[in-house]
Amino acid sequence: MADDELAGLLAEQISYYRARADEYDATYPLDARADAAGRAELLTTLEALAPYGRVLELACGTGQWTVELARHATTVTAVDAAPEALAICRRRVGAAPVQLVEADLFSWRPRERYDLVFFSAWLSHVPPQHFDDFWALVGDCLAPDGRVFVIDELPAVAAVERAAPGEPAPAVRRELTDGQDFRAVKVLYPPDELRARLDALGWDAEVGTVGWRYFSASVRRR
Q: What is the pTM of this model?
């Protein structure tokens, strides 16, 4: 029963991002217009890793970061479960060397290895029950000496979220502009806790904060 409840929550999370795709760029707080300074700092940290080589982006969404990755990558493979978001991403990246893949990241497996694995606003949507398996997947995606770069939100964000108690994983409720209401997983890691969890799995992580809301992490296999 618990597994079925978690599967239902994850399915609703996908439905939420499919329904939200057309308004995502106008409502996500890291949009350049809403948080230019924070985005610029995160982008500077990411670009310090350039050139990227072959890049895999997990949960690319509408391509806000895909277009930035493509500037310094040989190729980008961008994976997302929402075809509506992928369509926006395709328009955004234009003729850049980006391959889009529609897939559920909890069942998808890579066909090749990558020099950089990137994901933004995704780790917080991975239930604690899947944390170890997810990082095993990330490891399977990496070429020797490959790197991982993560962007996500800090625990202070809980103050501006609507918690959804009683779910099989930490979750929030999200309402669209048309009134539709969805549940989504939301796990907010303090930097020290994230470093410790990754250390236990054989990863070394350098985590830096950006204001009160965001962190970035550069991660390598030990």
A: 0.96
